[in-house]
Amino acid sequence: MRAHTIYNGYGANDWYINDFWAYLESIPNKQREKFLLFVTGADRPPLLGFKMMNPQMMIARDNAADGDPKNRFPTAATCMNMLRLPKYHSKEDLKRTMDYVINSNQGFQLG
Questions:
Q1: Active site residue 79
Q2: Three-class HEC string of 12-77
Q3: How many whole angstroms separate alpha carbon 64 and alpha carbon 46?
Q4: 94: exposed, middle or buried (C-beta count within 10 Å: 0-12, 13-18, 19+)?
Q5: Could you read off the pLDDT of 6-58 as tens digits, one per residue?
Q6: CATH 3.30.2410.10: does it fit domain 2-103?
Q7: Model-level pTM greater than 0.85?
Q8: Residue 82 has what DSSP assignment?
Q9: Whole-number pLDDT of residue 106
């Protein structure tokens, strides 16, 4: 997933993006499925892998949260496979907020 993600407002090697990927790698597979569902609307990778995802997965900076993002949540546009990610002040804020968002069971499931 990481190798095929594009960025808007962040760079692939920014410390913050590295912290984000470290967080994602640290959570169990079930949580990653929830993350994927949150961002793409599907809890499984594309059949032929992320390189075939269309549109490509994107992490975009949520500039509306530049003041104090502590109480802002990441949002997603599943039709564009885009995660709008505020820049939190610490790894702990990032983890706490991402855990809450992906475990809130919000989405477009019909079952």
A1: yes
A2: CCCHHHHHHHHHHHHCCHHHHHHHHHHHHCCCCCCCCCHHHCCCCEEEEECHHHCCCHHHCCCEEE
A3: 31
A4: buried
A5: 999 999 999 999 999 999 999 999 999 999 999 999 999 999 999 999 999 99
A6: yes
A7: yes
A8: E
A9: 57
Q: Tokens for 49, please give them.
A: 């892998």
- Residue 46 structure tokens: 């594309």
- 25 CB-near residues (< 8 Å, 6+ apart): none
Out of 79, 105, 108, 111, which one is annotated catalytic?
79
The whole-angstrom separation of Cα 4 and Cα 56 is 7
Residues 66-98: pLDDT tens digits? 566 667 889 999 999 999 999 998 999 999 999
